[in-house]
Specification:
Blueprint: H1 3-15, H2 20-26, H3 31-38, H4 41-54, H5 60-83, H6 90-103, H7 108-111, E1 121-124, E2 127-130
Antiparallel strand pairs: 1-2
Length: 142
Amino acid sequence: MFATDFAALAREIAMDIFPLAQVLELHRLDDAEWTRINSNPKFQAMLGSMITDWNSAANTRERVRIKAATGLEAVMETYIADILDPGIPLTQRVEAGKFLARLGELDSQAMGEIGEKFSIPLNIGAHHVESKPMTTIEGELA
């Protein structure tokens, strides 16, 4: 195993988001390889350090953010399936759709409002020219 493999394995075990068996399966480690790695003093030191860092009070916000994102990702398919289920009231399905749109940054709040105002500063030589907002006249043609 390379040090980077030790680091990735130790980090995932320290984060304790997935059961050890699932982490070992992800890294394609059988029982014999895991026993060899787990008895390695370098790995044990790295794992101990990562567990301490992960569980520190200073890391609380990041720990909660990652665990919440992982948990949400685990149930995402259920939300998507529920949106398509006509047995669930339409208002609830619409809310689930809005929730997914926010997560995917597809709603107008994440993308910025349409018609948002902006200005363009122009720097020409030593002069600085700021564009002035244009007046818009709206109406209907007769």
